[in-house]
Amino acid sequence: RLSKGDVDRLALAQSEDEWKNILASLAVQLGCTVKQRSVQNAVRYCEKCLCIKPDRSHHCSVCEDCTLKMDHHCPWVNNCVGFHNYKFFLLFLGYALSYCVFIAASTARYFLRIWLLEKEADQELGSAKYHILFVFFISILFSLSVSSLFWYHLWLVLHNRSTLEQFRAPIFENNASDPNGWSLGKLNNMREVFGTSMLLWPLPLQTCLGDGISFPSRLPLDCTTYHSIGQTLPGRPDTPSRTLINPVLGGGQQVMVTASQARAQSASASCEVTTRSDTHSAALSGLSGSFSPALSPDCRVTITPDSGVTMMDKVTVLSEVRLDNNGHAKTVMVAESEPLTELVTGR
Asked: What is the pLDDT of residues 6-59, one digit of tens each?
């Protein structure tokens, strides 16, 4: 929970961005490594409990408290179903379904005798036949209702979702909504709720994995099992964007890129390289020339030196500019001095 001073800081926030920044800093101070975000792309905060919500937790208006990995509030057990009792709720449904099916199967033969041999059943069972018929039909009705709820929650477990997450997919740090964001594969999803030992799955023992606060997710570069929570995975090397410039071939539009990034393509029949500064025209004479791919004859590449860069007297650069029909960049060979490149397209 937040202190009174932190709550006052949130209340005095002048803008939504400031409010988001305060929540993010408080989460770091409290050590809350939350991945889930609100619809405003902010760290989730409960204004009633005055606390930062852990991942997958929600506030129950009936219990008046935040429940870890909340699934729903069940009126039949008069309690919230969440992280700590979700396995017991599923076992309750499984036990109830098994009992109803057993009762229906046990009374089915008596129901058939009453239906097919009415006179003999009257003599043998007497008034007890009404009790048997009542138990048989009630067990059938409860089997159907409990069965639908049990198999629905079993499907949720296989996909690692709660009832609330099924209706509204969680939003993560990248502001993307992913309904399968917590899914680790069907077997691992079952182990998350029932534990690693299958022999203990049907027993009412606390065997779920985790602490209900941190959950592994399927996000890129994230931990994939509970054993890897808190471990730093090696990062992937940064790769440059495949499309560095994307000019729209039209009148007077310009795209600015640095020469090291200028992997421009051209399908221009003749591309002319000039310099914006006359003092450097001789130094960049090695860039002048015509280029051979084929599209618009009006494509011109202008090289403008950066204001702190001293150009060499002689620069030998082999460059080739190619633009496809969509104007996507392919290749360019530029000087080591890294001047600024301006691509000017016009008709």
From this structure: 899 888 888 989 999 999 999 998 888 899 999 988 999 999 999 999 999 999
Residues paired with 165 in a beta bridge: none
Active site residue 74: yes
Question: What is the C-alpha separation between 104 and 132, in angstroms, rounded?
Answer: 10
pLDDT digit string, tens, across residues 138-174: 999 999 999 999 999 999 999 999 999 999 999 998 8
Number of residues written out for the chain: 347
Closest to 89 measured CA to CA, from 102, 74, 69: 74
Q: Which helix (H) or strand (E) holds 163?
A: helix 163-167
Structure tokens at 341: 């490149």
10 Å Cβ neighbour count for 9?
A: 17
Specify the amino acid at residue 146.
V
* Residue tagged active-site, from 74, 100, 208, 299: 74
- What is the amino acid identity at position 97? L
**DSSP line for 324-347:** -TT--B------TT--EEEEEE--
Instruction: Tally the C-alpha atoms within 13 A of residue 287's C-alpha that lie toward its C-beta.
Output: 29
Give strand pairing partners of 300: 272, 344
Contact 201, 189 (CB under 8 A): no
Alpha-carbon distances of 145 from 17, 80, 140, 149, 162, rounded to whole Å: 48, 20, 9, 7, 19
CA neighbor of 47 nearest in space, from 82, 10, 72, 79: 10
In the chain, at which residue ranges do the beta strands (DSSP E only) sit?
A: 36-37, 45-46, 51-52, 58-60, 65-67, 72-74, 79-81, 171-172, 253-258, 272-275, 300-304, 340-345
